[in-house]
Amino acid sequence: xxxxxxxxxxxxxxxxxxxxxxxxxxxxxxQLAARRAKVPELTQDELDHLLEIxxxxxxxxxxxxxxxxxxxxxxxxxxHIGSRVADLQSYEALVGIDLLEFWQIDYSYKAIKVNVAxxxxxxxxxxxxxxxxxxxxxxxxxxxxxxxxxxxPNWSELLPLGKIDAARAAQEEALEMLLADIAYVAEHLVEAxxxxxxxxxxxxxxxxxxxxxxRASRTLREKYPHLGIEIGMASEFVLGMHGxxxxxxxxxxxxxxxxxVRMVQxxxxxxxxxxxxxxxxxxxxxxxxxxxxFIKPAMAVAEIPVHVNVGMGVGGVPTCVYPPADATSRAxxxxxxxxxxxxx
Amino acid sequence: MEGAHAQASGMGGMRxxxxxxxxxxxxxxxxxxxxxxxxxxxxxxxTRDLSDPxxxxxxxxxxxxxxxxxxxxxxxxxxxxxEAKFNISEALAIPINCVERFKxxxxx
Lengths: 344, 108
Known about the structure:
The complex is a heterodimer. Chain A contains eleven helices and nine strands. Chain A has helices at residues 19-37, 44-54, 84-95, 109-113, 116-129, 155-158, 164-191, 207-223, 257-266, 284-301, 325-339; strands at residues 4-8, 14-18, 100-102, 134-138, 196-202, 228-233, 246-247, 250-251, 271-273. In chain A, helix 2 (44-54) packs across helix 10, helix 2 (44-54) packs antiparallel against helix 11 (325-339) and helix 9 crosses helix 10. By secondary structure, chain A is an alpha/beta fold. A five-stranded parallel beta sheet of chain A has the order 3-4-5-6-9. A two-stranded antiparallel ribbon of chain A has the order 1-2. Chain B is an all-alpha fold. Chain B has six helices and no strands. Chains A and B meet through helix 3, helix 5 and helix 11 of A and helix 1, helix 2, helix 5 and helix 6 of B.
């Protein structure tokens, strides 16, 4: 009888699977992703490599010495250590993070606009107390501009009514407001000494959300030639909530990571962060094969650093509050060794 | 979770040279291998040394890049934090925003 190996589901629960079952899940994960994104499946060597990483009872795994990558950390800290700057200091000194991020709990440029002077003061203090680079981060969060939270008609209500033109017009109006807010916040944080601006969970509201980040990046790059600009994605696929928006003549709706990274680098960003969401009902083996299959074509065309999102619920790390080290370290090793990523 | 990633695959931040490689990625948009090669050439070390806290402690102290103060090793007479970033900016030939702001506001 084939022995069972402890492994994780996408919700973090510990289960036991045989090596054959893990192998079958890896194959199913890559096959599904290949069909969805119309990209190649992982090669047999890559699947064998993943099987060695995942068909193991080891509590922890790691890359080889010398193969380490940059660890950026959007949303650095727990918010409960003492102060936000103390959070950053502890993550610099104790956790060993390479690129830190100052942020506030209402993680949206629209929300930060009204509090930007205090955010700038916090950044200035952080820059005086830390050696590591510290960027400022928030979400574009386009949906915040729609009713009832914002002034623009709610396109999610207009679309089911068949009011397509009105829904598109609302998104275009919201996009311009968001661009102004990102520029306003970025100007204050750069003035306070920030090493970079992160637009995190980009595309959460669809193609207009992604377009806002791209246009903001281009504007920031023209103004600040050496500023760190990171665009991290919300998911593997850009939803066509508008459907007709373009950047440099290319339609954004429906873009997978290989096209996303081309847009991000054309927009002048420094770092692209692909995100592939977890299916909690499938194993972490199935999820990692699916995620790597989606992102692999992006690595072939990337000219800028790629930092894969590997937080709770994305990039093969289970959707749970306290992701287990066994599952987290396996995702780390898999992305670094198979995709040769630039960071996490 | 961050701790697990840091131990599994991270460069160690300023315990080694992760902060310096990150700065090259941010400022010069260098991919990882290019950034590591550039930095190793600037520091006169092997790329493998960049994630080795023992090798980098010596290099950071020689170059004035700052080290983490620990119970048994503190260096209050050496550059730290903002002071270290002046040295990093010059040695790596990259502008660091807060250093440039400091020069401007201190009216250097």
